[in-house]
Amino acid sequence: MDNKKAIIQVVGYKNSGKTTTCCKIIERFVEQGWKVGSIKNDAHNFEVDHPGKDTWLHREAGASVVAITSKHKTAIMEQRPTRLEHLIERMDGIELVVIEGYKFENYPKVVLLRNESDLSLVEETTEIMAIASWFPYEHPSIPVVHIDQFPELFTIIYDYVQNEMGGNK
């Protein structure tokens, strides 16, 4: 089975609009019939389980992996970090993976600039396909849109993804 996926990252510093931009990208692709997966990098010790719930009790009892499933969804919680490429590999049947964060991974990126002190991110990251900026900014070789110009940003992303998929979508 061919499980080719297009992958894009949305990176930026805190409060740059990463989550909002990821959600807009996901919504637009889903509206067009794409199967989209997402991955969110969290720099903190996030918690998705709730103290006292059965799965939390299983974990507290010592289970390294806890799964919960129902008719409509499944979650697997592992007590270990997982490399980004392994998360991507697990997304069977997904055509596009939208990744929020992981600034220094080597996938095509949209870089969000909240203010001029964020400009170092353009120099520090690789594979930048577009920049969305909150302030007037131009780059000599990378397309730049204002953060409020989502339709223009989506066109750049869509053209890239279509090209990656060989125009088969």
Structure description:
The chain has 169 residues and is of the alpha/beta class. It has five helices and eight strands. The protein has a single domain (6-45, 81-165), classed as Rossmann fold (3-Layer(aba) Sandwich). Strands 2-5-1-6-7-8 form a six-stranded parallel sheet. The chain is globular.
Low-confidence stretches: none
Measured by DSSP, the beta-strand proportion falls in: 15-25%
Average residue pLDDT? 93
What percent of residues adopt helix (DSSP H or I)?
25-40%
Structural class: alpha/beta
Domain Molybdopterin-guanine dinucleotide biosynthesis protein B (MobB): 7-134
GO biological process, one term: Mo-molybdopterin cofactor biosynthetic process
GO molecular function, one term: GTP binding
Pfam family, one: MobB
Quick structural summary:
Residues 7-134 form the Molybdopterin-guanine dinucleotide biosynthesis protein B (MobB) domain. With 169 residues, the chain is α/β, with parallel strands linked by helices.
